[in-house]
Specification:
This protein is mainly alpha-helical and 317 residues long. The chain contains 15 helices and 2 strands.
Amino acid sequence: MSEPRGSARALATPPLLDNLLQGCSRTFALTIPLLNEPTRCEVTVAYLLFRIADIFEDSTAWPRRKKSAQLRQLAVFLEDPSSRSARSLAAEWKSQPPLPFPSYLELLGEFPAVMRAAQSLSPRAWSLVATHTCRTCRGMSSFVDREEDGNLRLTDLADLRSYCYAVAGIVGEMLTELFLLSSNSLQPIASGLRQDAAAFGEGLQLVNILKDRVTDAGEGRYYLPENLPRADVFALARRNLTTAVGYSSRLESAGSDRGIVAFTALPVLLARATLDRVERLGPGAKISRDEVATLVRRLHEALEQNAVGRLLEPSGR
């Protein structure tokens, strides 16, 4: 595949990519459709590429060396998509699947379609997506290389934060650059957004780690260091979510596209409610579909009133 070469940013997200998104994510299937085009297409392509990297990292069928090698191979390909055929990569991945889940196998098989959609992105948007995905692929591979007998154990708070940065902080940085690309009106708040982007991603990742820690441990992923008090992790997650509130509120105050405001605000609302539930009931606790629907409704009401910042404040819960 040649380098994405569109002279204009993409106008619409291909329906196939929307279907893949719906099959691979609950949260992002709610949040990405809130975005307006062309940002929606850019973020959809980025999400699906990051999801492929996640699939490799979480593989239960591949040995450590293969997981690490495939992550590095994906990074090399994204840096130079002309280096080999996307179709051949997809065939290679499906011939020995990394995970047994049908939706993930469908995504791997449709990798050529994801890359065709990437061709419709502006050169600048694609450069941002590819560069940050490559950074995450290589960050993930460095942690995979540390696995022993199929287990990964993080050692301390700094190690946990380094992992969160590799898998989520970089995502926050990429999204921030795509938001800034979408509108020159955001330039006055660009430095603040960039400063808080990684913490936003870290906060969301910590909530997932706290929620899923029993399941993860059962699959050999011990993200929470043994000697790190859980209260410290909850406190760090809450500080990061407070930073995320400021991030989204600044977007609203700066007159950002409402889709971007909604896209950043909804994960904060969901993460904060989930964190409260997990802290009270323990790992595995989730908020119900009705609770999610209520949060979505309240968000749309706040958008109509230009009051998302007030909704995100603790008193707005």
